[in-house]
């Protein structure tokens, strides 16, 4: 008849090896003599202190580098605004501007210029989109040069409906151009993401 395995285990004496008396104490004494455990514990606690200090230093450096790149990325948009002429008010104080003609035109000019500055500041340049942005910036500089020329004409000929309309249209075209650039960059980013996801599949 079959026996229960629990009964078999209870009945059989434990067959494990037994160490001679005092073996553990002799082994600990040898370890103590050869490796001096107390010094090892002190050394390990001091090395742990240095490891903690090094980890804190590495974390500080990493945060500093990340912060630097974030700030330089934000200032890149500002440098784009500064590098495109005609966005800031003209440095030549003798030129007449829309803002000098009437308060309504001043509001219109400020609206478009702040929109242009905001669009430029929000651009993020990467190696993938740099060529596209450079192409749009060249077009924007042509429009800016035309705007400066129209301001010169406004100063020379005086305010006329044609020049004022041309100035407002120029501002509108620059803002539209930047909105098209943002749309193009979104499409480029989406295409890149689709290509990456199709490669992963």
Briefly summarize what is shown:
About 80% of the residues lie in helices and about 0% in strands.
Poorly predicted segments: 85-91
Shape: elongated
Q: H/E series, N to C?
A: HHHHHHH
Structural class: mainly alpha
Overall strand count: 0
Give average pLDDT, whole number: 77
* End-to-end gap: 60 Å
Helices, strands, pairings?
Layout: H1 5-11, H2 23-35, H3 37-83, H4 98-101, H5 103-121, H6 130-157, H7 161-200
Helix pairs in contact: 3-5, 5-7, 6-7
Features:
0% strand; 201 residues; 7 helices; elongated; mainly alpha; 2 domains
Characterization of this structure:
With 201 residues, this protein is mostly helical. It has two domains: 26-73; 84-195. It has helices at residues 5-11, 23-35, 37-83, 98-101, 103-121, 130-157, 161-200. Residues 85-91 have low confidence and may be disordered.
């Amino acid at each position: 008849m079959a026996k229960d395995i629990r009964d078999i285990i209870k009945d059989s004496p434990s067959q494990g090896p037994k160490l001679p008396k005092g073996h553990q104490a002799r082994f600990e004494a040898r370890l103590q003599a050869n490796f001096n455990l107390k010094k090892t514990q002190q050394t390990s606690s001091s090395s742990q202190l240095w490891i903690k200090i090094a980890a804190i230093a590495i974390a500080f450096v990493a945060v500093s580098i990340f912060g630097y790149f974030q700030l330089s990325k934000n200032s890149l948009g500002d440098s784009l605004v500064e590098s495109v002429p005609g966005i800031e008010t003209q440095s030549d104080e003798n030129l007449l501007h829309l803002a000098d003609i009437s308060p309504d035109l001043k509001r219109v000019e400020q609206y478009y210029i702040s929109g242009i500055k905001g669009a430029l500041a929000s651009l993020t340049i990467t190696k993938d989109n740099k060529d596209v942005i450079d192409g749009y910036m060249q077009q924007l500089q042509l429009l800016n040069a035309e705007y400066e020329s129209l301001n010169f004409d406004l100063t020379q000929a005086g305010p006329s409906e044609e020049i004022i309309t041309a100035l407002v249209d120029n501002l509108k075209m620059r803002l539209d151009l930047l909105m098209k650039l943002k749309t193009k960059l979104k499409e480029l980013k989406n295409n890149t993401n689709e290509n990456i996801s199709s490669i992963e599949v």
